[in-house]
Each structure stands twice: as structure tokens, then as C-alpha cells.
Design a protein that fits this description.
There is one protein chain. By secondary structure, the chain is α+β, with helices and mostly antiparallel strands. Helix content is 22%, strand content 42%. The protein has two domains: 6-86, no CATH class; 104-286, Pleckstrin-homology domain (PH domain)/Phosphotyrosine-binding domain (PTB) (PH-domain like, Roll), CATH 2.30.29. It has helices at residues 81-86, 90-97, 217-235, 257-286; strands at residues 6-12, 23-29, 35-42, 48-55, 58-64, 78-80, 104-106, 118-140, 146-169, 172-177, 181-185, 189-194, 198-203, 210-213, 248-250. It is globular and about 70 Å long.
Length: 287
């Protein structure tokens, strides 16, 4: 029970971890009325929850069991309130039932067929490998002029080619950007690779793979694989409806390129290092 210097806001009437205690946000105040602490804690098992950025207009909390003796499969993960209350994530429900959520997208620009349903959607940044040539000069003259012959070595490098949105339906995976438009029929996708902050898509009707930087790449990879599996089994035209989420997002909300820079810098540097190592090996083999 909160004392006179504390304000209490109940988050979960029954703790998602121990199923016994109450999870509440306790805001403590100092003598002068200033906030001194702000914690979200279970009254029984001491499980901690921290508020994260909202998803699909729903509050999201991250679980911390560092000071609790309890164990939970979702420790360290961020789930929506509805997911904590039912005790499982939307993703796990999809995996267990081998079904996909049916998504309502407001203002969708992509024209869908009568029997085509939308399953997942988010902003994305498209990247593609492009060849880059490094030019080197053999020597430099005494006055600072470059003399001699130049040599060029080429290597592959991921380049951002457009920013837009990625849409998964029961028939296609569609990227709709400001300048580019890519469409992948599910039966043409040959591989789906998950990265730390992106997914790579390879298709039989395209020479190059495309990489899409987006939020929740693991969820995207799983959903695409489930969609391919359902389509290959003849479920591309009809699927038993499963109400997992009631998500409403807008196709006009473009993914900000600036927001992605900090998130992708680390993975891009690692990819560049790997490509340089491959090029070095090729150069050594030529010598």
C-alpha cells in the first residue's frame, strides 16, 4: 500500500510472472513534492517492468528479473500489455498455430486482389549490394601532383536505394518506396535471412538479393516463412482467420532514414569488414 508520499498506478492486477502479486507503478515524492523515484514492481515476486515505446497504439513493457528468484521465457523482452496478460507473445501464438495475424491497413496504396489478405506491415529501408571501385595511384611527385598509373579494385558494398514500406500478404511480399517498387510472389522467394536489424530476401526472378532494414526483423522473418509454407500447401487463397492483433497503421507513415542510421551503423560496419576480408583473400590469391 502506497503511503502519503507515494502515488500508485496499477499496471497488472495479476503479475504476468508469478500470477499472484500486483504490478504497480509507484511514484515516490520528496519533501518538496519533487519526484525522487519511479518504479514498476510486482508486490510478490519483485519482477520489474520498464515502459518502452508504444506499438500499435498499445503500451509496451520490458521484463527484468535481475532482483527476482522467478524465471520467465520472456525475460529481457518487450511485450505489449495484451501479450503479458495472456502470457504469450503474438509471435509465439502464430508459430504454435502456424497461422498469421490479419492486419487492417488504413490508406493502403497497394492494390490487392479480392482474395488477398494483409498479414504484416511496417516501414522499411531497401538496401542492395553495389560494386564500388577503389582507385589507387602508384606515386606522388615532389610538388604534390599525382603521377604514374592508377589501379582500381572493386568490391561489393551495401547501398541504401530507397525508403518506404514493406507489406506481407497471403500471396506476395511487397516493398513500396518513394522511387522503387519490388514485388515477390511467395512461391518465388528462395531464401529469407534474418539479421540484427534487417531481413534479406532472395527471389528466383531477381539476380540480386535485397536487404530491408526494419523493426522486429525476427518477427518479419518468421511471418514470411509461415506465409510461404501456407502458400505452398495451398493455403494462399484462403486461411482460417485468427484474431491475434487489431493493428491499424497508415501506409502514409514512411520510415525515417535518420531514425535508422544509428541502429544500422554497427551492422553495416561489420558487413563492410567482412567484404574487405573477402577482397583481401581474393587479392592474395591473385598474387
Amino acid at each position: 500500500m502506497a503511503n502519503s508520499n507515494e502515488e500508485k498506478e496499477v499496471i497488472f492486477k495479476k503479475c504476468p510472472v508469478c500470477k499472484k502479486g500486483e504490478v504497480a507503478k509507484i511514484t515516490s515524492k520528496s519533501f518538496f513534492g519533487l519526484l525522487s523515484s519511479n518504479s514498476i514492481l510486482c508486490s510478490n515476486c519483485k519482477a520489474k517492468f520498464s515502459l518502452q515505446a508504444e506499438k500499435e497504439e498499445e503500451k509496451v513493457f520490458k521484463l527484468d528479473l535481475s532482483e527476482s528468484e522467478m524465471k520467465n521465457a520472456y525475460e529481457g523482452q518487450s511485450l505489449k500489455v495484451s501479450e503479458w496478460e495472456k502470457g504469450t507473445s503474438d509471435l509465439d501464438v502464430c508459430i504454435q498455430n502456424k497461422k498469421l495475424p490479419n492486419l487492417k491497413v488504413v490508406g493502403l496504396k497497394t492494390i490487392l486482389s479480392d482474395d488477398e489478405k494483409t498479414h504484416w506491415y511496417s516501414g522499411a529501408r531497401a538496401m542492395e549490394e553495389r560494386m564500388v571501385r577503389d582507385v589507387q595511384f602508384s606515386s606522388v611527385g615532389g610538388h604534390g601532383f599525382r603521377v604514374g598509373q592508377s589501379r582500381g579494385e572493386s568490391h561489393g558494398e551495401l547501398k541504401s536505394i530507397d525508403s518506404g514500406s514493406l507489406l506481407l500478404t497471403n500471396k506476395r511480399l511487397i516493398f513500396n518506396g518513394d522511387l522503387k517498387h519490388f514485388e515477390y510472389p511467395l512461391n518465388k522467394i528462395t531464401s529469407v535471412e534474418e539479421w540484427k536489424d534487417a531481413v534479406e530476401i532472395a527471389s528466383g526472378n531477381r539476380q540480386k538479393c535485397q536487404v530491408y532494414v526494419l523493426d522486429e526483423p525476427h518477427k518479419w522473418a518468421v511471418y514470411i516463412k509461415i506465409a510461404i509454407s501456407l502458400f505452398s500447401k495451398g493455403s494462399g487463397k484462403s486461411q482460417t482467420k485468427i484474431n491475434i492483433t487489431n493493428d491499424i497503421v497508415s501506409d502514409t507513415e514512411k520510415h525515417s532514414l535518420k531514425d535508422d542510421i544509428a541502429k544500422t551503423r554497427e551492422s553495416l560496419e561489420k558487413m563492410k569488414e567482412a567484404l574487405l576480408k573477402i577482397q583481401e583473400k581474393k587479392n592474395k590469391s591473385k598474387k
